[in-house]
Amino acid sequence: MQEDVVIHRKKPIFPISAELHKYLHKYQREAKLPIGYSDLLNFRESVPLTDKNGRDTLWESPIYPPGEIEHIHNGLKKIYAMLNTSGNISIVEHKYIDRIDYCTFGNTHPFRIRIVNRLNDVYDYFYVKKADASRIYGLELEHTLSPNDVNYLVDHTTLVEEHIAGIPGDAFPRTYMNHPEYNPIRIAKEFVKFNERCLIMLLGDMRSYNFVLQITPDFDDFQFRIRCIDFDQQFYEGNRKVYMPQFFKENLAYVKLAMEHLTDKTVWQYQQEERSMLVHRIRSERHRLAHLRDVANRDVLSTEENVHQLKSGLAEYFHNPDYLKCGSMVDIVELNIKNVIRQII
């Protein structure tokens, strides 16, 4: 039976500590950006942004003072170059900023930047957000433990992220899930593996509008990959179901697909496959993960109440009293990882 998991409180923004800044510098995630998040807030008016069907997208298009537009656009083009080519400005000589969108909901109130190549009208997006420590830890865990590379930069209170292309998870069931050439078992398999990764890494709130599906044609079929696009709820909530996408009503179409096409045995098989791949990634990134753990354990990233609720819930769920010894969300993630290693080896 599908349950409705509710997140009652908005997660606070956690500041980036000096130790986390050192970590980001070591792994080339830190950069001196030409403009910051606060510069993009310098607007007094905005107009609602609608989609091609005239529906409100909940994004706004800010209107900047004429004297600041050139400075902002030049700064954003340089940021794009830093994000994609280590600062090679020549790649943006023929590009222009077509649109800046502002989102008033969500924890980080992001700006979405659309940049266009004037030679062929090909466009790309990237995002400028408030820097949040727990979000950065989520990005790092995604980069090191998932099959996906993540590209981002941090400058004090500004976070810049690349755009992750894909079909929005809430639109996919309506428009693509029943495509005659798509194997529903492969879609269900990917959802099971995604669910497994989220629980192990404590990546929360993966409702369908917070992930995308990437489709890759293979020589005899299509492969699917679910990718998270929102890391706001990284190991903060105390309810374990927040870290299991299967419990969100927004994901009901994916749950039904798995129930229809998978057996308990195949679900277990796909979970083991994902855990095995996690072990390979853990081995190759063990030093970086240890460094990340040591830095994160010095930060306050949740409440004592949430930590207690989650460790108690996981101890019951996994029938493992070791969770009750955990003192932080980071300890819980580390125990999750250790349990995966013990199970596979």
Spatial order of the strands in the main sheet?
1-2-3-4-5-7-6
Structural class: alpha+beta
**Main sheet: strands, sense, barrel:** 7 strands, antiparallel
Helix content: 40-55%
Averaged pLDDT? 92
Rg to the nearest angstrom? 21 Å
**How many helices does DSSP assign?**
11
Let me know the number of strands. Answer: 10
Measured by DSSP, the beta-strand proportion falls in 15-25%
Shape: globular
Number of domains: 2
What would your notes on this structure say?
With 345 residues, the chain is an alpha+beta fold. It folds into 2 domains: 145 residues, no CATH class; 178 residues. Helices cover 41% and strands 18% of the residues. It contains 11 helices and 10 strands. It has a 7-stranded antiparallel sheet. Strand 1 and strand 2 form a beta hairpin. The protein is globular, with a radius of gyration of 21 Å. The two termini are 34 Å apart. The model has no long low-confidence stretch (mean pLDDT 92).
